[in-house]
Amino acid sequence: MTALPERYRDAVQFAFGDTPTLKDELLALVLAGKKTATCTALRDVKDAQEPMPEVGRRDVVLDGAGKPAAVIETTEVTVRRFDEVDEAFARDEGEGDLSLEYWREGHEAYFARNGGFEPDMELICERFRLVETLGEYRNG
C-alpha cells in the first residue's frame, strides 16, 4: 500500500470512473496530461453529502485498486446542465476521440448506470492540474 504523504492525509480521496478498469484508464489519461477535466452529477454529491470541489483544493486520486496514485488541484468549477457541456470541456476530459459526441455517448451511459440520466441533469464540471504522482506512479 502506498503511504500517503502527511500533507495529503486530510485531502479528499476519490477515483475517476466506476469500475477498476475504468478507474485505471482514466488515471492513465491524467498521468499522461490528456485528462484535465472531469464532471459528476450534482445530485450524487448532494445525496452523499460530499464536499463540493473548490478552486485551489488538492485531492488524492486513487487507482482501480484503491491505492493513492496522484494529487490534483482544482482550477475551475462550474455547474451546468448535461446538454450545455461544450466541445472544449469534452476535449479537456481527454477521453476517446475528444469529440463532444463521444463525450455525450460515454457520459450518458455512465450516468444511466449510476443513478439515472436526464439531458437537463446538472453536472459539476471541474478543471484541474496534476500536482504530483505518488507511489509506484511517481516514475511513470
Automatic annotation (TrEMBL):
Pfam families: ASCH. Transmembrane segments: none annotated. Coiled coil: none annotated. It comes from the Bacteria. Residues 14-132 form the ASCH domain. InterPro entries: ASCH_domain, DUF984, PUA-like_sf. This is ASCH domain protein.
